[in-house]
Design brief:
The protein is an alpha+beta fold and 272 residues long. The protein contains 9 helices and 6 strands; from the N terminus they run αββααααβααβαββα. The longest helix is centred in the last third of the chain and has 28 residues. It is extended, with a radius of gyration of 28 Å.
């Protein structure tokens, strides 16, 4: 009888656990899986809600998107996708990306605030971000990176975008043309110096995988950032640089103290 009572209690507990209700912090239940108020609030913080949109309507739309995600994710599990090697590799990569990002955020938030002297020095040494900041209008051509050295030399010698396009067409290389804009504040200082000194209209290439994007600066709009407006941007940039340097130092320390073993032929090249 004792075991019978225990079995009945266990079944009733399991049954009550399965019969979840949309109440309290649980605002929806999708096939037994809860969506909570914190889930919705997090989704709302990520959503791009148009300014002036009714809050109740926005909340309902975002909640419905959460319901849709749960349903599709559940279907993916039913089809065994969550057990596939590709999924497991992507899951591990996404988990590592999130952890590294949050580690960087922690270092950034604890970085020492720069002095006023450091701020002014940074502003003076980064004109592309401040006094000489511009928005560049770009004429772009995207194409498969050629392997032939002769074609590469012809492209490198092209004085302008029309000449570069002519080379690509002559060798029957497919081209995708587009316009774009580039804020010089986003360009690394050394690269900015190289690009800013190019002859007018001279294309420069940016490799993306096995593709190349040729860019020609066809217009410039000045957007200087000076005075009190420059200081917050400089502080942000300095702290970001400090974070990067701190993480590099941490990584070196971890490598020096860690135990890392490579199979023959897979390790990093030996230093001379």
């Amino acid at each position: 009888m004792k075991y019978g009572i225990i079995a009945v209690v266990a079944v009733s507990v399991l049954a009550s656990g399965c019969q979840r209700k949309a109440e309290g912090q649980t605002i929806a239940v999708v096939n037994g899986e809860e969506i909570t108020a914190p889930d919705l609030n997090f989704a709302l913080s990520l959503a791009k809600i148009p300014e002036g949109m009714d809050k109740d309507k926005a909340r309902a739309q975002v909640l419905e998107q959460l319901v849709d995600r749960r349903l599709l994710a559940e279907q993916a599990r039913k089809e065994g996708i969550d057990k596939s090697p590709e999924y497991l590799n992507r899951e591990r990569r996404a988990d590592e990306d999130l952890l590294i990002s949050m580690l960087a955020d922690r270092r950034f938030n604890t970085a020492q605030l720069p002095s006023d002297r450091e701020i002014q020095s940074y502003i003076a040494s980064h004109p592309e971000m401040f006094a000489n900041r511009e928005t560049w209008q770009l004429d772009q051509a995207r194409y498969q990176t050629p392997t032939d050295a002769g074609i590469k030399a012809e492209l490198a010698a092209a004085p302008n975008m029309d000449a570069l396009i002519a080379v690509l067409e002559n060798h029957k290389i497919a081209i995708q043309r587009q316009k774009n804009r580039l804020d010089t504040a986003m360009v690394p200082p050394q690269l900015y110096a190289q690009l800013n000194s190019l002859p007018a209209g001279k294309p420069f290439g940016v490799p993306i995988g096995n593709m190349m994007v040729a860019n020609a600066i066809v217009g410039r709009e000045a957007h200087p950032l000076t005075g009190d407006q420059a200081k917050p941007a400089a502080v942000q940039a300095i702290r970001k640089a400090q974070t990067g340097k701190a993480l590099q130092g941490l990584l070196k320390s971890l490598k020096d103290s860690g135990k890392i073993e490579y199979q023959a032929g897979y390790g990093p090249p030996k230093k001379n």
